[in-house]
Each structure stands twice: as structure tokens, then as C-alpha cells.
Amino acid sequence: MKAWIAKGYNACFHKWLDITEIEGAKISYLYPAIPQTNLPTYPVPFTTLKDEEGKIFDTGLKKFDEPEENIFPPKTKTLSEEYYITNSEKPVVYKVPVHRRIRNSLDEYFRTLEKGGLIMQEFIPKGIEFIGTLELNTSAKEQIIKLITEYPVLIKGCIFEATLLPYQEQAYSSGLYFAAKDIYFNPEDKLINKDNKVKLATSRSYNTTLNRQRRPKIVIQKGSVLTINDNLREKFKDSVLFWKGSGISNIEEFKEQLKEKQKIKEKREDERMRKLIEKLNKDGFKKAQAGFLRGFLNEKIDVEYLKKLTQDRIEKYQRKNLNGFKELGFKVGPSQTPIIPIIVGEDEKAFIITMMLQEEGVFANVAVSPAVPNGKALIRTSYMATHTDEHLDKVLTAFKKVGKLMGLI
Questions:
Q1: pLDDT value at position 256?
Q2: 140, CA 20 to 30 Å: which among 237, 328, 381, 389?
Q3: What is the pTM of this model?
């Protein structure tokens, strides 16, 4: 818009504004306004979502109680670029219609993609209102106001009819901000911390002088949510806006609320675990078993660690009983799984042994012909991570007793 003011001023008053007069005209970004309200809207923060029912909500710094409740639940997505949102505690969403068309034929007024041009056109329909702020600290103030209010404003191929309204100052506070435009990423600025919801991207502008694209730069994408201190806010005041949409005005106070909620949650979880262990013990589970099962209900324990722990326990118990059966004198079949086969011979003998083991409190499967060759019936003993050393000792004791009675050892 500054370029249009400079050109328009020269066309109307037959002279150019000097550099100090141009610098004295501070113009904000122009954002869509909700029609007939003069209520400004802003780029959608990265934390604002639309669910499958079309409901709009903002997650801000919210924490979810259950791990499966991600901030991006199934079929819930961020709003597209056509949406803008008010900076209020209950955001109002406004969709700006942007029409696009592709030219199927080229004439001399179009540059092809190979020559650095595009053949897709985008345009905004007539009647869409935009709003921004204009601060004039210049001796040419009256002339610039006359220029804006009496002549159509031309910006990027769009013609606007401008109206000047009283300025309403934006209330700043400590809390959340969002990037009103792409911000070139510099680690020294420390704009990114654990409280932020930042989306990094690459941006590439076009160098009209050299007729080529500039090198891509890493940017904090427009709409990213930031928590920044007063010094950084002053540095990036033209790039960030205080975000009230999440309903959070004080980050430290919000963190304390989260801590209290976490304490309540942990207390609830401890009570739930206590009742679970009591029930498991009542149902005959040993303390070691109950503790092992409890680990699978603890969301803080890494799943891969639990998988490894489970596999280690299975292998440990398999080795213990494999060695135990061999030391007792049983004929043990080969196995690469948590199943140890004990070869007993005739089918009838295998059935009798399984019945005798059940009387000793041990359940084992039997495999007879035609599942195995004649004369090689076996007892299949299986092992789980929830078994205990006490269980394994009981199994070996039962097999030792039955094996001697049946003449196997």
C-alpha cells in the first residue's frame, strides 16, 4: 500500500514524497473484516481446529487426560487458508471466498511457467471488506488522507474503496501470541520453546530484478502460536499478535492450573491402581503378577520397554524350565518359542500324564498322532510373562512326581 500512496501522491500532487514522509506512514497488514461489523479477523492460529461436524475450536496449551486424545483427533484438521478468525476469547470464524481459475490458452500478456510466470489466476469477489491500521506521522498527512478517501486504492491488482475509522488500540498482555506472517527463523531469537505450537516451513520469494527465485529460507509459518517476553514482542511487534482465542492470558498461572490438574489425575490414577491390585490379589494373582500388569496401564512407561521386558521374562522362564526338565531326566523336544515339548511316547500314556498333572494343579496340552508321529506323543508346556518363579517351581515339582510314577525319569 505504501507503493500505491507514493505513486498516487505523485499523480495527484505532481511531486514525490521524500523518504522521511514515506517512513512516517505506518501501515499494518490488511485482514478480512466480518461484513457490516468492522470486526477484524486474522490468520488462523496453528492450534485452531475444525472437527468432522464443522465445529471450530482452539486447543491453545490444553493438555488431554488420555494419551489417545491427541490434539489432532481422527478426522479433525486445521482450518485452510481461506478461513480467518477473530481475536476474541470465543473466536468467530469467517471464510473468505477466493476464486481461482486456470487459463487454458496463453496470449502475449501471460508469461509461461518456464519463463518465470504462472497461468493460474486468483481473485477476491467484489464486496469483501478488509481492515487494517494507518498511522501518519508526516507533514503530508492531510494530502495522504485525501488521496486514500477520494481515490480508489489499488493493491496487488485489487481495487478498494477506502474508509477511515477511529483507531482502537490492541490490548497487549503476557500470554500467547501468534505469527501474523511468516517469520524468518533465527535460533538466537529463542522464539521456540516447549510451550509453543510452531510449524516450521520454507519460504522462497521472487527476485524481480534478477528474474529468478531467491534461495529458500526457513520460517516460522504464519499462524504458529508463540509465547514471547516483552523484549521479543517489541522486536516482532509487526509480525505477531496477542492471541486471546485460547482464553489464556497468563502462561505462568495456566501452568499452575495444569500442575493442580495433574496432581488430581495422579491421585485418581493411584486410587484406581490400588483397587485394581486389590482385585487381582483377591482373584489369586501374586503381587509380582499384579505389578507386572500395572506397568501396561501406566502411560508414562515406554511401550517398547514393556515389549522387551515381556520378551525377557518369557525367555527367562523358558530357559529355567528347559534346564529343569533336562536335569530331571525328561526327553525334551526342540523349540524356539515359549513352548517346551516333553516327549512321553504312547498316546494313552500322554493322556494319563495330563490328567495326573491336572490333579497336581498344572494344566498342559497334549499332542498325539496324527499331529505327531506314532510313539512320539508329547506334553506341551507353555510360558507367559505373567508367570512367576513360584509357578515354575510348582510345574517342575509336579512333573517330577508324575514322571517317576509313570517311569519317565
A1: 79
A2: 237
A3: 0.53
